[in-house]
Structure formats: structure tokens, C-alpha cells
Amino acid sequence: MKIAYLLDWDIVSNSGVLNKVEMQVKMWESEGNEVFVCFTSYRTDNKFLIDVRHLRVFERSRLSLLYFNSLRTFIGKALSFQEVLQYLKEIKPEIIYYRQGGMWFPYLDKILRSFPSIMEVNSLDLKEIELSYSLINKLIYKYGRKRIINAVKGFVTVTNEIGQQFHAYKKPIEVIANGIRPINKITASNSTKKSIDLIFVGSPGQPWQGEDAVVHMAALLPEFNFHIVGFYDDDHPAQSNVHFYGYLNKQELSELYQNMDIGIGTLALYRKGMKEACPLKVREYLSWGLPIIIGYDDTDFKDVPFALNIGCYANNVSEHIDEIRNFIIQWKGKRVSEDMYMPLIGVEFKERRRLAFFDQTSTLS
């Protein structure tokens, strides 16, 4: 099958999304498919480009005659999608797999109507935009959302909770939580290390990730070290046991993981009205053998010993601090073995299900 993978994603840093796309594409190709990856990106740092066979980045970064940066971005992205449409008409994919983006742009729904298309949805998007979008952006998003939903033939959602919001459209839905390949062979913690170190990897502008909750946890657990990646210390009081790194590339992050003991996942999902998730960063923690502390119901993990769920509500850290401390001490010097988590999150089974859904959906009238 000839697949076009379409994403509106600014390639400016190493991210779990880029790692996921690269992993998926290589898996699909190993199953005999030809995959063409199309990014629309407003700013692109080439050192973060993924390593796949067919990759095109459609970028419009210089519209200097326009005064407002937001207007430059919107028009630039619209022009990029116009180029994408011409490119896809040349390669004639049998199906388009579109990862739902942060905004609608002209030509996007026309692309999705021109070929059999499936949209991947990673969030309760209507709740999410209420947290961070301006009024005009909300109106544009909702206008375009209807057009996109009408254009696609089906949906892949990463949780059951997200899938429920699309039942009313009477289109096929497949729930496939994020998966990962076994790529990191770290089997034991550094036995000579005296400190206990926890890591949190996130992105600014997404308050539901809860980096403030991680800082609060550190204040309640001064005996442990906390390492926060993706953020700077400007907005937080100085604490001797909290270390901020900003953005790290893949190699820098890998080196940091090797000295960590625990991974911290999303702690404030309640802020966007959700209870269930399957974050890529948590699966990346596990690939390094790190047990995890999370504040939501994970689609793949139910009552497993390597995951501590402290609940999805505002005071989850404070009310579970003794449980958190005991969990950290319990896992000191240990790693989560691959055979404990791979049957739950292994990418091969998940991606074969996705490809089967492609086959079924591409033939729908």
C-alpha cells in the first residue's frame, strides 16, 4: 500500500512525536508498504529531521511584508498545504494518515477529501483549545474541525475516552494506544550512584503536563533529585534538588536517562477535563527501564507493579506523598525488565492493527 503520512508539526526540537513517526514509518515499510512523510513546518531545524526514506518538509517561513506573526504563520501554512496537495496528486497515495494538528488551514480538508483519509486524534481537542487558544483561533479551529471530520473516512484514537467523542459521526474508529520498540538495553541502575534521581520531560504551554506539580513534589521530597527537561527555571523558585535543562537533543537526553531511577509522567491531566492517556514520554521512560509515576489512567497499564497512579485531581501529589516516597525507595537500584512492559506496549502488534484498519477504511465509499 502507498501511504502518505501528513503532519502539521514545527520541527524545532527532539520530541516524542517525531520519534513515534519515525518508528511507525519504519514498521510500515517493514511490512511491505511505501510511505511518504509530509511535514508542514513553519520553522525547521534540520538536525531534528527524522531518518525515513521519503520525507518532504513544506515550509513557508518568510512573509516579511505581513506585520503580525500569527498572520504570517497562518498564511504560510496555508501555502504549504497548497504545495502538499500538488505533491500528493503526483504520488497518488492509496490512503492519507493525518495526525490531527493544532489548527485548521485552507487546503487541508481539500487534501483529505481528495484521497481516502484517516485522522489520528491524540486529545479531547475541544477541551484542550479552551486552555490555550485565543477567541479567534478557537473560532477558526472549530470551523475547520467540522470540515476535516466530514472529509475523513475514519479515526484512530489513542484512548477509549477520546474515541467516544467521535461515535456520533458514524464512521469507523480504532483505538490504538501509543507503542514503542525495545531499543534501549539498560538493565540495571548505576550501582555506584548514591543519589536517587527522578526525570520529567515535557513541553511549555501545556499546563496539563504538570511541571509545577513536579516542582511541588520535589519540595515535599527534598531527599531526592528532580531533573526537568523542556523547561527553564524562570517561573519557579530555586530549589537545590531541582535541575532544569531546557530542550535536549536525543543524545543528551539518552545520557541523562542512563543516570535516572524514576520517570514522572503527566500529573495534571484533569486541567483539560481528561482522565485517560497514553503519553509517548512515559513509554520512552520504560524503554530505559524506568518505573513511572503518573496522574491518570493509562490505556495500556492496569495494576502493574512498575507504575504508580496517584490519581487525576488537583491535590494528587500532596495526598499521595508517602506512597510516592515508598514507591521510589522500593525501586531504588532496579530497572523494569522488557518482558514486563513490551507485551503491553509493543509497537509491532499495534502497527499491524493500524495497517489492517488502513486496508479496511481505504475501500469504503
User: How many strands?
Assistant: 15
Uncertain parts: none
Please give the order of strands in the largest beta sheet.
3-2-1-4-5-6-7
Strand content: 15-25%
Terminus-to-terminus distance: 18 Å
Largest sheet: 7 strands, parallel
* SSE class: alpha/beta
Count, helices:
13
* Share of helix, binned: 25-40%
What is the succession of H and E elements?
A: EHEEHEHEHHEHEEHEEHEEHEEEHHHH
Averaged pLDDT: 90
Chain oligomer state: single chain
Rg, Å, rounded: 21 Å
Q: So what's the overall shape? A: globular
Question: Could you walk me through the main structural features you see in this protein, from its secondary elements to its overall organization?
Answer:
The protein has about 375 residues and is an alpha/beta fold. Helix content is about 40%, strand content about 20%. It has 13 helices and 15 strands. The strands form three sheets. It has a seven-stranded parallel sheet, sandwiched between helices. It has a six-stranded parallel sheet with strand order 10-9-8-11-13-15, sandwiched between helices.
Any descriptors?
single chain; 365 residues; alpha/beta; 7-stranded parallel sheet; 13 helices
Produce the secondary structure layout.
Elements: E1 2-8, H1 16-30, E2 34-40, E3 54-58, H2 69-91, E4 95-99, H3 108-114, E5 117-121, H4 125-132, H5 135-151, E6 154-157, H6 160-164, E7 173-175, E8 197-201, H7 211-220, E9 225-229, E10 242-246, H8 250-257, E11 262-264, E12 276-277, H9 280-287, E13 292-294, E14 297-298, E15 307-309, H10 316-319, H11 321-330, H12 338-345, H13 347-362
Parallel strand pairs: 1-2, 1-4, 2-3, 4-5, 5-6, 6-7, 8-9, 8-11, 9-10, 11-13, 12-14, 13-15
Helix pairs in contact: 1-13, 3-5
